[in-house]
Amino acid sequence: MNWKQAPLGPAQTNAYVLHNQEGEAVIFDPGGAGEAFEAALKRDNITPLAILLTHAHFDHIGALDHIRDAFNIPVYLHKREESWLADPEKNLSIAMTPEGITSRPADYLLAGEKTLPVGPFTFQLYETPGHSPGSLSYYHEATGTVFSGDVLFQAGIGRTDLPGADEGTLLGSIHHKLLELPENTAVACGHGPTTTIAAEMDTNPFLNGL
């Protein structure tokens, strides 16, 4: 198994494609450029099985309906953000365009920390609120990767000046969930370059003193 990073949309939000040798895949956070992303997946002979959302801010869902319809696949989202997909104010897109960005409801609503099987892929699900109330991190032990959305970045953390965000909650999520993962775990961030748990423990200025 392996994964690819694909920055998409005006915010260059990182979508990720986790795939096996047969080309079966799960997609994380298709944030925009739906037609181009679809074409790239088909060019690479990728067969998506599902879309896993780390959270429902507009820059992570811009191509959601395009990709789900192109491959006829389900969408997973935390239940605390169930209404965000259809609400431009909650997903923060109303400030970007007059009509905002909307998507149809998720097919599966997630809650709690548990093992999540999706086809041949198995994830450990972590609730990591703070950037948004329903932020999820998906740990894939087979590749040693956590797909964490906008929780933790290289030398940074997610924004906490947004509705429903809270810095103390976010730092608690990082400290008690992500930093408990093996130090060689790759962190597949929602924006910017990937990093590792070890690197952020050693150098991230926002985590000093935790």
Give structural notes:
- With 210 residues, the protein is of the alpha/beta class.
- It has a single domain (2-207), classed as Ribonuclease Z/Hydroxyacylglutathione hydrolase-like (Metallo-beta-lactamase, Chain A), CATH 3.60.15.10.
- The chain is built from four helices and 14 strands.
- It has helices at residues 34-43, 64-71, 167-176, 197-203, and strands spanning 2-8, 13-19, 24-28, 47-52, 75-78, 108-110, 115-118, 121-127, 136-140, 145-149, 152-153, 156-157, 186-189, 195-196.
- A hairpin with a 4-residue loop joins strand 9 and strand 10.
- It is globular.
- The mean pLDDT is 96.
What's a concise summary of this model?
The protein is of the alpha/beta class.
Summary tags:
210 residues; alpha/beta; Metallo-beta-lactamase, Chain A; six-stranded mixed β-sheet; 14 strands; globular; metal-binding; hydrolase; hydrolase activity
- Strand order of the biggest β-sheet: 1-2-3-4-5-6
Radius of gyration: 16 Å
CATH class: Alpha Beta
Number of discrete helical segments: 4
The backbone outline, from C-alpha atoms, is: globular
Our estimate of the beta-strand percent is: 25-35%
Biggest pleated sheet: 6 strands, mixed
Mean pLDDT: 96
Give the helix/strand class.
alpha/beta
Output the CATH homologous superfamily.
Ribonuclease Z/Hydroxyacylglutathione hydrolase-like
- Amino- and carboxy-terminal Cα gap: 34 Å
Strands, count: 14
> Which sequence of SSEs, written as H and E, runs from N to C?
EEEHEHEEEEEEEEHEEH
Structural domain count: 1
CATH architecture verdict: 4-Layer Sandwich
